[in-house]
Each structure stands twice: as C-alpha cells, then as structure tokens.
Prior knowledge:
This protein has one domain. Helices cover 71% and strands 0% of the residues. It is built from 18 helices and no strands. Helix 2 runs parallel beside helix 17 and helix 3 packs across helix 11. The longest helix has 36 residues.
Amino acid sequence: MxxxxxxxxxxxxxxxxxxxxxxxxxxxxxxxxxxxVSSITxxxxxxxxxxxxxxxxxxxxxxxxxxxxxxxxxxxxxxTRVFRRAWQLYAAFIVLFAIYAVSIGDIATRYAAPxxxxxxxxxxxxxxxxxxxxxxxxxxxRAANLDVLQLSVLLMACFPAVLWLMLRVPNFTLAGSFxxxxxARRFEWTLQTFPDGNWNxxxxxxxxxxxxxxxxxxxxxxxFHARFRKPLWAYLGLAFLVFAYAMTLxxxxxxxxxxxxxxxxxxxxxxxxxxxxxxxxxxxIVLALFATRLIPKRWYALNSPVFRPLILCGEQALSVxxxxxxxxxAGHFVLVTGSGSPxxxxxxxxxxxxxxxxxxxxxxxxxxxxxxxxxxxxxxASLRTG
Length: 386
C-alpha cells in the first residue's frame, strides 16, 4: 500500500479521537497521587500505559496531517507546517510550565506545605528561579506531569526529516529509528534536566513509538493486521496480555513478586518506563491490534452520545491535556486538604473529567465560529490548537 492510498484509507478514523481522548482521561487520573479511580487506567493491566497510546497516536496523526501537505505542496512547505505545529506545542508547554510552577510555589507558601515542591519536582524554582526558568525554556525541566508534552515538542520538531524519509523509504526509516532505540538503551543515551537528573521519557527511546505510529499511518498497519488475522498470532497475543497482567500484579503486590523466580522478577520488575522497555512496546502493539479488531472503523456505536465526550476530548487533545495537568494539581490539593476519602477521590476524578470535556466542547465551538477551513487529512487529531 503506497502512502497516498494509506492516507486516504486512514483519513477521518474516529477511533483515533476515541483512543486519544481515553489517553487524556487516563493521564489525568494517573497524575493525581493516591487516587483510587486511577486503578482503572491502562498501566494497571499490563506493561504499557496511556503515555504509549498518546505518543503513538500523535505520531500516527502527524503523518496523516502533514504527509499530504508534503506530497502536494513540497517538502519545504510541509516542513514549515510541522515546525509551526512544534512551535504551538512549545508555546503551550512554556505557558503551562509557568502557570504550573507559580501555582505550586504559591500553594507551598500560602498553605505551609513545602513538601509539594518536592513532590512535583519544582524545588529548583524556589532555590534558583532564573536558571530554572531558563533551563525550562530549553526543555530541561523535570516538573512532574509535563513530561509527555515536553517529549511531544521535541518529537514534532524532529518530524520534518523523519516524514521526508518516511515518504521515500518507510521501512528504512523505521529500521533507523529502531537502531537509535537499541543504541540509546545500550549506551544509556538520554537528555539531562536541571539541576540534575534526566528526562522522565527518554526521547531517544520513545521516538520509536512516534515513528512507528507514522509508519503505520502510511501503510505499515496493514501488514500488522494481515498477520494478526491468523488464529495462532491472536492466541499468542492473548497469552502475552495475560502474562503482562500477571507481572503487573506482581509488581504492585510484593508478596506475589517474591513468589517469582529471581530471573523473571528482575526482567520485568520494576517496569522500565523511562527507556521504554521492549516488552512495553510489544504489549502496546498487541493491545492496539486487539482494540482495532474488536472496534471496527465503522462501528455504529462511535456515533452514539455515549462516546461523544471521549471523541471530543480526542479532537481537542492539546487543550484537554493542558487542562488535565492543571486539574490534576487542583485535584491533588483538594484531596490533601480534604478528607481524601474514596468518595472524594471519585468526585474529584469525575469532576475533572467533566471540566476537561467542557474545555473540549468550548474549544470545538470556538473553532467552528471561525468558519469552514481547508484543513488537511486528520488535522484535529494531531493535537491541533486551531
């Protein structure tokens, strides 16, 4: 399947918005410490989590969005559009970083809760604000909960070269991405943060998932599905999902982990998220294949009101993500200063999701007021701000 045929086939796939909205909701829930509701998120049922889903889809939708521009209007125009998108993501990161850091500092001072600056990794802002802000502008921040957006900025900034190669030698490009992934894990390549430490999501490793998403959007996904239709591969995939769930339980409950052989325990516990362990990638791929097989592209329920909030949050992913980061901070503060009871955790979680949905609804309404646009394929799924 060539790139043009693949783009036409995968254009306007509502499932992308559905899963991206789900990733946003799960990331919000996971960002609230000691939250009972976060037990339903992906990370509790296997090796991979919402971050893998998020990064893969933005790589997938970036290819759907910018490949047609590069094919129809040339590489230079296509590259400028990608850089403009990267700038939008960077601007969102900087604004969010500023609001986030100031809010945490104010909470720590106003409510005599100094531990919160350590919990959210912004203590350097109080010790050395000028250098911290400067390094934040250089994407060297380690503030908690901003790491996915920080990763997205860098991946999008590098995407013009990746897309140019992907449209010409897709398999070679994916192979090169895999070689970089292996080398980064082997030689411990990463990027540093200020004042010390490394990125929570090693970009040299996580780029593989982003590139894999682009490769799938440009025709590679058909190869996965062709093989997965065979019963043997489906059974093996199901067995791996069960194994991943068992190992995840063992990681959460030390008593179960102690029952495992040492070699097996050390291979999977703790779950290496920073450098995107190979078993996390495999788990995500198998999970994605089952999900797309169980939910067809033209499934009638995708048009029902039940899934509309999720799809809406996927269509307005950047606005919803930023709102989710701030809401997770507010939710954590409410739980810490309140009773923190299970009922309060449920109310905070549902309230946050409701506000995120309202933000998505407003963003969608605001864009409609600008009138119809000649947007490229898959425009809204690629974290577009409008």
